[in-house]
Amino acid sequence: MDEASDRSEGRPVDRTEPELAAAARLLASASRARMLKALSDGRPLSVTVLAAEAGVSVPTASVHLTQLAEAGLVRAEHAGRHRYFRLASPDVAAALEALAVIAPPDPTPVTTLRAHSRHNALRRSRTCYDHLAGSLGVALMGSFLDRGLLCRQENTAPPGARPARADQPASYGREVTYHLTERGTERFAGFGIDVDELARGRRPVVRYCVDWSERSHHLAGALGAAVAARFFDLDWLRYGISPRVVHLTDAGEAGVRDAFAIETAD
């Protein structure tokens, strides 16, 4: 039921709540949704690239991007005569990842080798704004927990709630919290990440996202971003030819194996 229906039936419209319908209308366009997914890469992309990702003309893409910018979902950056767009904040990327968890599968059949390769690459390793996702991101999260760098706290379920089954896919909620341990602080410092500096920022140090392809948690927050940035600094990770896709280099495969006991396979 929409706002007009609320008014016609005499019910007051609650202006204190977020306008989910407005956000939903923006995402209801397949073209805008494809552009937002491409921007989940975390890097600024040109209108031309975004138009190609959405399968629309450049003028049409510009109209869509203007609407997204006015709604505060993306922001424009200018470099000379060129204009680039990026997501407005990590919160937008987190919302998109959360929606992907409940979204139905894309009904479009994968009929080309290029599309099949891209699909597999996205599931293997991708960026979720500025941190790592896919099987690589989930494997890292598991390694951090197994090695005692992070600890998982099971929160008390509300009265009357059913306990989660072990075989249930991961979801968002208040049932679990992750914390950085003292061992983790020392280990990440040895890896070149100053956790104390991260804690002085406005962003939470440790957060999680529910990975839409793995249905498990991967590390987000300031620490997740710092780990991904460190991987790029060490040349362990490079961007692929498609937005969001990243690949471990030979050095990266050796690095994650030696540092975090993660075996990778194509």
Note down, in words, how this protein is organized:
By secondary structure, the protein is of the alpha+beta class. It is built from twelve helices and eleven strands. The chain has helices at 3-8, 20-27, 30-39, 47-54, 58-70, 90-102, 113-124, 134-146, 182-190, 195-199, 221-233, 250-260, and strands spanning 45-46, 74-79, 82-87, 126-128, 131-133, 150-154, 176-180, 207-211, 216-220, 237-239, 246-248. The strands form five sheets. The protein has a three-stranded antiparallel sheet. Strands 4-5 form a two-stranded antiparallel sheet. A hairpin with a 2-residue loop joins strand 2 (74-79) and strand 3. 28% of the residues are buried.
Short description:
The chain has helices spanning 3-8, 20-27, 30-39, 47-54, 58-70, 90-102, 113-124, 134-146, 182-190, 195-199, 221-233, 250-260, and strands at 45-46, 74-79, 82-87, 126-128, 131-133, 150-154, 176-180, 207-211, 216-220, 237-239, 246-248. The chain has 266 residues and is an alpha+beta fold. The strands form five sheets. A three-stranded antiparallel sheet has the order 1-3-2.
Search tags:
alpha+beta, 3-stranded antiparallel beta sheet, two-stranded antiparallel sheet, disordered N terminus
**How many helical elements?**
12
Spell out the helices and strands N to C. Answer: HHHEHHEEHHEEHEEHHEEHEEH
Uncertain regions spanning at least 5 consecutive residues: 3-8, 158-171
| Rounded Rg | 20 Å
Terminus-to-terminus distance: 47 Å
The shape is globular
Tell how many strands the DSSP assignment holds. 11
Helical content stands at 40-55%
Class by SSE composition: alpha+beta
Order of strands across the biggest sheet?
Answer: 1-3-2
% residues in beta strands: 15-25%
The average pLDDT value, as a whole number, equals 84
Largest sheet, strands/sense/barrel: 3 strands, antiparallel
